[in-house]
Design goal:
By secondary structure, this protein is α/β, with parallel strands linked by helices. It has helices at 30-42, 58-66, 96-110, 129-142, 155-167, 186-199, 242-258, 262-271, 286-293, 304-314; strands at 3-5, 12-14, 16-19, 47-49, 76-81, 115-120, 145-151, 175-177, 202-205, 276-281. The protein has a single domain (10-214, 273-296), classed as Alpha-Beta Barrel (TIM Barrel), CATH 3.20.20.100.
Amino acid sequence: MHYRRLGKSGLKVSEISLGSWVTFGSQLDDKEASRLIHTAYDNGVNFFDNADVYADGQAEIVMGNAIKDLPREALVISSKVFWPTMPGPNGRGLSRKHITESIYASLRRLDIDYLDLYFCHRFDPDTPVDEVVFTMNHLIQQGKILYWGTSEWSAAQISQAYGVARQYNLIPPTMEQPQYNMFHRERFETEIAPLAKELGVGLTTFSPLYFGILTGKYIHDIPEDSRAAMESATWMSDFLTPERLDIVRVLEVVAADLGVTQAQLALAWILRRKEISSVITGATNNSQLQDNLAAAEAVSVLTDDILANIDEILGNQPLE
């Protein structure tokens, strides 16, 4: 496993990390989730990603139980705050009240004393940015979190938070967690990546396999044990379009020619970008996990010619 700095901070995270979205507390039983976490850790993964809203908080409980026998100081544990998790009009968003109540709830569920990374899960237009920055700075001073960041914020919003922090001599956001994959790339490549380079913000990207579509498992049908087969995943029909599946079929040939799996090709395509600190992956079994972990070795086969061919296949390269 290789480790990359989280932006310009001194923290190092595994370039491939394991997230709990969808799988923990829903698709997987607690024992299997624990086995996956321990296997990932044994293979060098140190960054494990959560959010308070995943499985209505159950994902954090599952992860908290799984890491009890692992050395806390060797782990980088994250969570997020924004979406509704509590009753009433203040039970969501990024107000000082909701952030404060949410961090304590996450720490209880995870059964840990602090979070390494704490993300603002979305931008909150109803809360002044300076309130968010001051609240996060206070949590760092309290020792409840070590670094704070954003998720799916625009470049302008991140810049505003960074500017507020510098104006008042507070700690600015250290990281952003955007979606980035072969099918979802324009905003990342044209806005987020350049800003991250300018400000030294670390990037921990999510959905690298585009909800599993880039693994190729949906080319012929929908497997019974897949995410798309879940009753709660009816939204995936909007993403499983014939056009995207045709592209995946062509990428299947590219991956085979390179001697890698389709998942490894998709992950390596992301890892080729050095400004990315970590790619957050998901897994429902050990085979998927091992396949994902091997993706780092596939980066070396992505020559300029192959990358140009992939861009042509995708047909979505942003204009410079």
